[in-house]
Amino acid sequence: xxxxxxxxxxxxxxxxxxxxxxxxxxxxxxxxxxxxxxxxxxxxxxxxxxxxxxxxxxxxxxxxxxxxxxxxxxxxxxxxxxxxxxxxxxxxxxxxxxxxxxxxxxxxxxxxxxxxxxxxxxxxxxxxxxxxxxxxxxxxxxxxxxxxxxxxxxxxxxxxxxxxxxxxxxxxxxxxxxxxxxxxxxxxxxxxxxxxxxxxxxxxxxxxxxxxxxxxxxxxxxxxxxxxxxxxxxxxxxxxxxxxxxxxxxxxxxxxxxxxxxxxxxxxxxxxxxxxxxxxxxxxxxxxxxxxxxxxxxxxxxxxxxxxxxxxxxxxxxxxxxxxxxxxxxxxxxxxxxxxxxxxxxxxxxxxxxxxxxxxxxxxxxxxxxxxxxxxxxxxxxxxxxxxxxxxxxxxxxxxxxxxxxxxxxxxxxxxxxxxxxxxxxxxxxxxxxxxxxxxxxxxxxxxxxxxxxxxxxxxxxxxxxxxxxxxxxxxxxxxxxxxxxxxxxxxxxxxxxxxxxxxxxxxxxxxxxxxxxxxxxxxxxxxxxxxxxxxxxxxxxxxxxxxxxxxxxxxxxxxxxxxxxxxxxxxxxxxxxxxxxxxxxxxxxxxxxxxxxxxxxxxxxxxxxxxxxxxxxxx
Length: 620
Hints:
- This protein is of the alpha/beta class.
- It folds into 2 domains: 24-348, ABC transporter transmembrane region fold, CATH 1.20.1560; 401-420 and 439-618, P-loop containing nucleotide triphosphate hydrolases (Rossmann fold).
- The protein contains 22 helices and 10 strands.
- It has helices spanning 17-27, 30-41, 43-78, 84-134, 137-140, 143-155, 159-187, 189-219, 221-235, 240-245, 249-301, 307-348, 413-420, 443-447, 464-469, 479-489, 492-495, 518-530, 549-562, 575-578, 598-604, 607-618, and strands spanning 373-380, 390-397, 402-406, 428-433, 436-437, 450-453, 537-541, 567-571, 583-588, 591-596.
- The protein has a 6-stranded mixed sheet, sandwiched between helices. A 4-stranded antiparallel sheet has the order 2-1-4-5, covered by helices on one side.
- InterPro entries: AAA+_ATPase, ABC1_TM_dom, ABC1_TM_sf, ABC_transporter-like_ATP-bd, ABC_transporter-like_CS, P-loop_NTPase, Type_1_exporter.
- Pfam families: ABC_tran.
- It is found in: Cell membrane.
- One of its GO terms (cellular component) is plasma membrane.
- Residues 47-336 form the ABC transmembrane type-1 domain.
């Protein structure tokens, strides 16, 4: 990709625990933004989730207390208490009701979470796609920005909801733990400290492994893109011919397998580390539990506490230990989720042209074909590159004038067009449209004055009418206009042979799609450019690369008639096309080396004349 580097999208987590915790504090600043998204996705769902979480938090302590009362009442009945039997039945019924309530609340939480996942995932996908619409060409050609986008898209459906759910889980466990602590303190205050001490190592390990997992999945983004690309080579119709012809399958599949095995080895190492830490810390927690179990059982055997107290203590300690570890685990998971959310917000915060404040107000020259284009000492260099793509280019294009751009690949022809369309801003110099600096114009207004067909035109997997009509979205349903554009672009003869004509689905991605030849696709792309019959400037970038000579001649006759009073810019390697232009600019190493008409440049006997004769000899 041009203008980017394959650097990791994030900084690796700091090595020390103190630095990691400090970094975690910064990353938890992602919480407010995440909760705003959560609320925007479904305010009602957020309220329901909060209420259900609160109920779910207090139910366990109530169930544990009723269980203690049942045991003590059963013991009393065994010792001859005649009223205990009736009380047992009532207590069992109470516990049953609490358990039913707990089951209903848990199911409600599951349902609410699933619905929120859909709402939040859809909201974030829309935000990501909306941001993609706001990004400029330079962002898509920058690998670091592309990695941010891919990381954001990959985690959009899981991480935001996970972060919110972990936060609610912490609230739930804190409330539950608080109720447990009240019960534990009355029996043995020091057991609360044991409960805390036995769980802290699990938190440290979880936070460390979460950071390693984030670094692993984020740093492999460029290689993950390569893995997707290798898969794309083996599965797309546009590449299968060369794969078959050159026998590329084993080579590409081998590289895919090697990269996958590398990913698997990294995942396996992390999984083994998680297992080792989990097992060790699990045994530590188990030892703490059974130490307290021995202490409580000894007190119960000595008659210092009732059997119900012992059952309550053990139940509360075990569940309290799980609740505390749940809090610490949730904090570690939130740390990892927050790291991924930082990727999402970094992507959404990428500044774009529409968001960048400008000193000059948005200006618009009058509509109509009377606006000239002027490039004043324009130079441009892609980000991260030392060489100039364009250097000190000065050109003036008047209404009705046809300019052809010629030169070797990489001479700067397409870059010049990108600057005219404000896909990029000049590094130096100015581009004026109707006397107004394009940097001060509204981007949408500027681009709405152009009609263009690019060399790498898109083959939309839509029907024929939409493939043409997309050149002017406001007229997508205007069939007469689409028919005129098809005739002007030479696509009408292709369309007449299709089974559904303008309603024929094109491409091979969807059911009943009709595939076309490269030349037929190109005629549709040219017709798409002609949809803007009110365009002030027409740009054709290699418009005849895939069509025959007769169709090329017919196309340019129509093109000249359509662009009679407009500016037209043609990029072509075919000199039979180029010689029709009023002026020809010969670009070499980013500079305008020659400028003039065909006859003038032939008389100059310079680079253009050499290239023209060289190509002409190929037809003799």
